[in-house]
Write a structure and sequence with these properties.
The complex is a heterodimer of chains A (199) and B (239).
Chain A lengths: L23 E2 L20 E5 L5 E5 H6 L3 E8 L4 E12 H4 L9 E6 L4 E5 L9 E6 L2 E2 L9 E3 L12 E7 L6 H4 L18
Parallel strand pairs in A: 1-5, 2-11
Antiparallel strand pairs in A: 2-3, 4-5, 5-8, 6-7, 6-11, 8-9, 8-10
Chain B lengths: L6 E11 L4 E7 L11 E7 L5 E7 L8 E7 L7 H7 L5 E8 L13 E6 L3 H13 L6 E7 L8 H5 L6 E7 L16 H9 L7 E6 H13 L7 E6 L1
Parallel strand pairs in B: 7-8, 7-10, 8-9, 10-11
Antiparallel strand pairs in B: 1-2, 1-6, 2-5, 3-4, 3-6
Classes of the chains: A mainly beta (199), B alpha/beta (239).
């Protein structure tokens, strides 16, 4: 018998293989943001990759929509402990953006409208693992969930899937982003429960 | 490399009702490292078969040695909150990990006028800021706008509404039903509600907004429309 929380029973245990440690499943789509929601128009939206040499590659909304589109259905995991199964997205895989980008950088810092940043190893964006997502469940992505477009990096905690994304900066050195600077783990693998510094 | 945060034993000393479904829980946590107002903790429950469930709860008061205070709103059909609100026996233990969150915090060194905007149980971390402000005898103006459905939904009762502190203003906004004689017609937060409080702020003054997602979205958008710099608005959402 547990010495903690006597009488606590909890919910069904059947999700164990699909739920990372310390997470619980939700049917809702909660929101985590550090500040107000930026209102970004697709008329002025642009996505820019800046390489370590300063070379830039930019796409307008229409140019982004002309790139190869992919549908993906995936589980997402928020560091605030909810997980949501089978979320349906449409977007552009990063492999399409990087087709003509020459780089030897190992890291990226994603920048968002509104000033948010987050850092990732470049390899975590490539080989079909990540997208710029603009559609959720068949509808344009709403502003509070990061619309018009956000990163979708479902194998990491969801703060890495930067909302309102406007660009990537490629770097040789790993540069901690917004949450990574105030206490969140630098990498954020939900299956290794990398929530906070030191985890 | 930072040290991992430890899970600590936490004994429930006392439970106080706040509303029909909201509770204050007072725990003793030996070895508690202290925290900043606005921070939260993870609470871990363990069932007899070893199954564990973890949820985050805001700290409602500044650190008092190894005593901490949490605010728990029982969510209908919730896995954890109804147990904490009503079933965990006094004297029994849970595990707690924290403090967490280094962004939605107020520090006593801050001197600018500060606006706090709470929706429902979003008042909990803001109450910690108000209590810390009081403990520090801070003379920086604090203004709380607190949106609740009815008078019965107010947390911390007279401590908030019957205050006599010169540097704290509290204004309750009722969305469904206001006390008799209230000048404001019950309804959701509007630009009019925010105009005067926002006018008292300096350009760099922080605004802290905590509540359900829809409430925080509305408040954030209204503040930006009133010309507040988005970088000065800190938000914490739930649900």
């Amino acid at each position: 018998m547990s010495s903690f929380s006597p009488g606590f029973r909890g919910r069904a245990r059947s999700l164990a293989d699909r739920l990372p440690p310390g997470q619980y499943p939700t049917e809702q789509f909660p929101v985590l943001s550090a500040g107000p929601t930026p209102q970004v128009s697709t008329d002025t939206w642009a996505f820019t990759i800046t390489t370590e040499t300063g070379e830039t590659h930019s796409w307008t909304w229409e140019e982004m929509m002309d790139l190869p589109q992919q549908d993906t259905v995936t589980d997402i995991h928020c560091v605030t402990r909810w997980s949501k199964f089978d979320t349906p997205w449409r977007g552009v895989p990063f492999d399409a953006f990087f087709e003509d980008v020459e780089t030897s950088a190992d890291f990226v810092v994603a920048h968002s409208y509104g000033g948010y940043t987050t850092n990732l190893p470049l390899e975590d964006l490539l080989d079909g693992k990540a997208w710029v997502a603009h559609t959720y469940d068949g509808y344009p992505l709403s502003p509070e969930h990061g619309g018009p477009a956000r990163l979708l990096v479902p194998h990491l905690y969801f703060w890495k899937s930067a909302k309102w994304v406007r660009g990537l900066r490629l770097t040789h050195e790993d540069e901690p982003g917004f949450w990574e600077t105030v206490g969140y783990h630098n990498y954020g693998d939900p299956w290794r429960e990398q929530r906070n510094w030191g985890d | 490399m930072a040290m991992p945060l430890a899970w600590r034993r936490a004994r429930l000393d006392e439970r106080r009702p706040q509303t029909a479904t909201a509770r204050t829980l007072l725990f003793t946590v030996p070895g508690w490292p202290g925290h900043l107002p606005g921070q939260h903790v993870d609470v871990r429950l363990t069932a007899d078969d070893g199954y564990q469930a973890v949820r985050s709860y805001s700290l409602a008061a500044p650190a008092d040695a190894d005593r901490i205070e949490l605010g728990v709103q029982a969510v209908a059909d919730g896995e954890v909150s109804p147990y904490l609100a009503d079933d965990l026996p006094t004297g029994a233990e849970v595990e707690i990990r924290g403090p967490l969150g280094n962004w939605f915090v107020w520090r006593r060194e801050q001197t600018e006028p500060t606006l706090l905007i709470a929706g429902g149980s979003g008042v909990v971390p803001l109450a910690a800021m108000i209590r810390a402000h009081r403990e520090a005898r801070s003379t920086s103006p604090f203004h709380l706008l607190y949106s609740v459905r009815t008078p019965a939904d107010i947390w911390y009762g007279e401590e908030l509404t019957d205050h006599r502190e010169p540097h704290l203003d509290v204004q309750v906004l009722y969305t469904r039903q206001a006390p008799p004689g209230s000048p404001r017609v019950p309804g959701r937060l509007t630009a009019t509600d925010l105009e005067k409080p926002a006018a008292r702020l300096e350009p760099t003054s922080p605004v802290y907004v905590c509540g359900p997602t829809g409430f925080v979205e509305t408040a954030g958008n209204l503040l930006v429309d009133l010309g507040r710099d988005p970088a000065t608005i800190r938000t914490e959402r739930f649900g």
